[in-house]
Amino acid sequence: MTTVEQAEKLILAQLKDYGNETVPFEQALGKVLAEPILADRDLPPFNRVTMDGIAVSYDALQNGINTFKIKATQAAGDEPATIDEPNECIEIMTGAVLPASADTVIRYEDVEIRAGQACVYVQDIKKGQNIHPRGIDKKQGDVLAASGQMVTPAIISLAASVGKTHLLVKKTPRVVIISSGDELVDVDQIPSPYQIRKSNSYTVKAVLKQHGLQADVLHIPDDPEVTKIQIQHCLQNYDVLLLSGGISMGKFDYIPQALEDLQVENIFHKVAQRPGKPFWFGRDKDGALVFAFPGNPVATFVCLHRYFLTWLNATLGLPQQLPVYAVLDKDFEFLPALQYYLQVKLKSNQHGQLMASPVEGNGSGDFANLADTEAFLELPLERNEFKKGEVFRVWKF
Amino acid sequence: MTTVEQAEKLILAQLKDYGNETVPFEQALGKVLAEPILADRDLPPFNRVTMDGIAVSYDALQNGINTFKIKATQAAGDEPATIDEPNECIEIMTGAVLPASADTVIRYEDVEIRAGQACVYVQDIKKGQNIHPRGIDKKQGDVLAASGQMVTPAIISLAASVGKTHLLVKKTPRVVIISSGDELVDVDQIPSPYQIRKSNSYTVKAVLKQHGLQADVLHIPDDPEVTKIQIQHCLQNYDVLLLSGGISMGKFDYIPQALEDLQVENIFHKVAQRPGKPFWFGRDKDGALVFAFPGNPVATFVCLHRYFLTWLNATLGLPQQLPVYAVLDKDFEFLPALQYYLQVKLKSNQHGQLMASPVEGNGSGDFANLADTEAFLELPLERNEFKKGEVFRVWKF
């Protein structure tokens, strides 16, 4: 059977560039930059005053002058004033441009201003103090944010500060979430005693929304002809089909047959993991990818995070996410020869360690449990006993 | 001067219930539940078959029967079939209701089906296998998600499965983000050599968006009358005013005067921290809160995460977030008697420890740095030297 590692490798071999698009910079939040953001001028663009107070020449202080005539008052945004004589100063505000004839700012708290004069109280004044010098953060033309970075609020700020009203970002793949089966009824319906309501599609849609993807949702009834037509339509109109359920070999699962008829190549079927073992992954001749997750909700949730989001980040060109590790906080046993995804709560301890507490549900169909946990602990395939204090990779959701 | 701890306490004393609203369940993602989600029936609602195969009576197997006549085929969503004789079975699909007359499911892989008969190959069959029993996850009326929980994709799924098309959630406060100062020009404008573009408001707006808050944005020019009118309008029409800049005592900062004239009570001004020392917090007589952050972008970013988001979670009734700790990975010195917020990159190590690497910028005005870091390490006020290997609280952004 395909291992988790092999499955990941096979999926990551299917990367594709879905192109770029230009969006207003505020709408770029959460998207991936397809161009660098460059400094349009030095940052700061001028010697910027960082305290309200007076601007003087340091030499004047050195020469024993401690009372200065206020020649002008200069606010942030004002054209800079000038001092002509050593015993003159400019009353100046935070954010203002340091006048060329001054080099030091003394804050209000350290001077007394009376009758147009400022008297300096303190001794300990450093040349250049209370000034954020031009270009010290970045020089004009420097890269502020590189292509391939995820747009964060900090990057939104950088875009605004350099006047990038629009940003070139990676286009995301067009995704359709497909459920199937006549046992599923709509959320607003009362199911018969042997039916259940659709829920997986909503979960998947919500997770994708958290990752900046708007996906369409489709339900396919148990009818072989309709199934084939609908799957064909999706292969032609979407980049990725995310199926939840309908891929087992049961008599009424028409999806495997439709995929075969439509010549979708099966790259692997079944992964040595629980939950999620029946996971089917394939590729249409025109490049559409099919992630067919098992119907049980926890399995879909594991596979979505472990495989689809990993693929999504990679296909958008994001740097690979650094693995996160956590310490198992009690013994756990799992006998089948499958890589187990254990639902855990996480807590940071005083040693800076992430502690993982298993919250066991009633098997992989128990979705209620997921609302109380935060992550899956990935327990290695080749072992059956996992001891308190051992460290394993963790996948947060 | 107010300490960070005192400031937090004073802010958390200003909690208010902003009421509830009903939204379509999919739109509740990221909001806070104001009602519990209850199981409308047992979960699973019936003894649910978890493998494609045949349903039989375990007693029949015990009595040596290993060949069964297929009496009916039953898919998920079908009304359950019935076996009348011990040597009969139902061919049955994943998700189907277990017929009352059967108690065990044998998967396809372990039987051979030929000419309307199923012959069981394997010995090791357990009574009740491949069945997810009715009510084992939750009983009808059980709480699936409690009031006060943040709506996650898992909770969206629970809502769907119990038919909650709409959810009662906490209303979020109405927030306005205010910038001020004639030195700021719009993003699409070319600033003069002594002006800069607005950027703080966009950063704040993006952070709030990540936390599910839609905020309005307002810029106030340097004019005392206009300032007073605008601030008054905001106090009357919003629950929270988030100011960035304009609160120092500079000659052209009209905001402190406007707040005083409008009788906004100052709860504290200045916190023993860097960046963010000039932070001003107050409350209007009618309850509007004013978070007036210093104008420097990193200070605003620190205060927004450290104070406003902490307040927001608390006022919405979310459980207090557990602190996260990280290990400083190199020595660091900070002399002023202020609590320092050090920008760091984070990395999980093989011991499950979160390691924090300082990325020092050029003082608190250096925003470019924030795009390369992920968190602030909160270094205690009472110390000046911080050693590699020591653990401190970390605030992710």
UniProtKB/TrEMBL annotation, chains A, B:
List the pathway annotation. Answer: Cofactor biosynthesis; molybdopterin biosynthesis
Metal-binding listed as a keyword: yes
> Catalyses which reaction?
adenylyl-molybdopterin + molybdate = Mo-molybdopterin + AMP + H(+)
What keywords are assigned to this protein? Answer: Magnesium, Metal-binding, Molybdenum, Molybdenum cofactor biosynthesis, Transferase
Enzyme Commission number, as recorded: 2.10.1.1
Q: Which Pfam families match?
A: MoCF_biosynth, MoeA_C, MoeA_N
- Annotated MoaB/Mog domain ranges read 176-315
**Highest taxon, organism lineage:** Bacteria
Signal peptide location:
none
* SUPFAM superfamilies linked: MoeA C-terminal domain-like (SSF63867), MoeA N-terminal region -like (SSF63882), Molybdenum cofactor biosynthesis proteins (SSF53218)
Q: Which cofactor does it need?
A: Mg(2+)
Question: What InterPro entries would the database entry show?
Answer: MoaB/Mog-like_dom_sf, MoaB/Mog_dom, MoCF_biosynth_CS, MoeA-like, MoeA_C_domain_IV, MoeA_C_domain_IV_sf, MoeA_linker/N, MoeA_linker/N_sf
Give the main EC class: transferase
- The protein's role, per its UniProt record: Catalyzes the insertion of molybdate into adenylated molybdopterin with the concomitant release of AMP.
NCBIfam families from the entry?
molyb_syn
List the PANTHER family: GEPHYRIN, MOLYBDOPTERIN BIOSYNTHESIS PROTEIN
Regarding protein family, the annotation reads:
Belongs to the MoeA family.
What is this protein's name? Molybdopterin molybdenumtransferase
**Protein species of origin:** Mucilaginibacter dorajii
Its lineage opens with: Bacteria, Pseudomonadati, Bacteroidota, Sphingobacteriia, Sphingobacteriales
